[in-house]
Amino acid sequence: IYPHLINYYDLTFVTKGTMTYFANGEKCEMCENDAILLPPGTLRERLAGDQRVEYVSFSFYVLHDFELNTPLLMKNVITRDIRNLVDIFPQKRLSTLYRSKEKLTNLLNYILFEILESLSLESNNSDIIKIKKLIEEKICSKITLKMISDHVHLSEEYVSFLFKKHTGKTVIEYVNERKMTLAK
């Protein structure tokens, strides 16, 4: 793709091979399972690698008062579930007969939520990942530090220390932030 300014969001992820994107002059090297989300107003250019590259792209608009806040380049965020969903929706099924627009909208929403969830759970500490998953599962219930510490088999004090160390937030701050995000 030659350099041009886009007025829509562009989500692209690589399923095989490598490709290089330039976003406002910034070089972004993409490998298998990497994604890039370019916001409107981005000067975009894309180069294919030396080998054959397979990728999926979505160009879309969002509501005028909504903004997607993700990193530009997201490494290894495309899960097996996302790939399977894309595989079962072949391009030949794109027609008005099959309610393709609605299916694609729902597919894109699912992919975006999966990516956002993956980014929110990002940690290399298995206890932090377990804690965040528990919080997501119980977000509509009362969440206590005791419940969390019992779940990960650690003391409440250590859970508090570990969570603050890895996230920069207390457990309560994180839970309240997630509830506010869900409410929005």
Helix segment tally = 6
Helical content, roughly? 40-55%
As a percent range, the share of strand residues is 15-25%
* Rg, Å, rounded: 19 Å
Walk me through the structure:
With 184 residues, the protein is α+β, with helices and mostly antiparallel strands. Helices cover 40% and strands 21% of the residues. It has a four-stranded antiparallel sheet with strand order 1-6-3-4, with no helix packed on it. The radius of gyration is 19 Å and the shape is elongated.
Describe the structure using short key phrases:
single chain; 184 residues; alpha+beta; 4-stranded antiparallel β-sheet; 6 helices; 8 strands; 40% helix
Structure summarized in a few sentences:
The chain is α+β, with helices and mostly antiparallel strands and 184 residues long. 40% of the residues lie in helices and 21% in strands. The chain has a 4-stranded antiparallel β-sheet, with no helix packed on it. It has a 4-stranded antiparallel β-sheet with strand order 7-2-5-8, with no helix packed on it.
